[in-house]
Amino acid sequence: MEKLQKNDIQDVATYCGLVLLKEGMTVSPLKLQKMLYYIQAWMMVFFDRQLLFDDEPQAWVNGPVYPTVYERFKSISRYDMMSRNDFVPEGSITEGIDSLEKRLGLTESQFDVLHKLIAIYGSKNQDQLVFMTHCEDPWSIARGDLGPFENSDNPISFEDMYSFYKARYEANRRARG
Asked: What is the pTM of this model?
């Protein structure tokens, strides 16, 4: 199994946001949070439990949230659409992507997986992504007995994320024969 380089979550968030914009998809702070969650979960599945970044998501009311990314973008309403300026203050989207590709240090196959995840989850809006996370075990387990509108900083376990999405992957492979 190829080694997955661990990265700063801010670099991954910026890269994800810029790729979404380059591909003509929308991105909001709320959508970006869910994208990071799904990217981390599936990278663990495809790269033998290795983490793309160390930050642990928390089970907030609207789904998984990474507090450091929340802090960075909290001045933007969670539903407002973001632009290049929200990710990189100068230069083009392409220049930002190129610079980050060097810094992220992923292999071609790792970038391929990352881009497929961005395409799949980026095609959904933030409300669809929130609904999806609410229907899945990792967020629900972390929320426990909390009411739907109770605040929480409960961590979502990497093990729960890996186990849930690995089981989904295996079930899909069996279904395809």
From this structure: 0.96
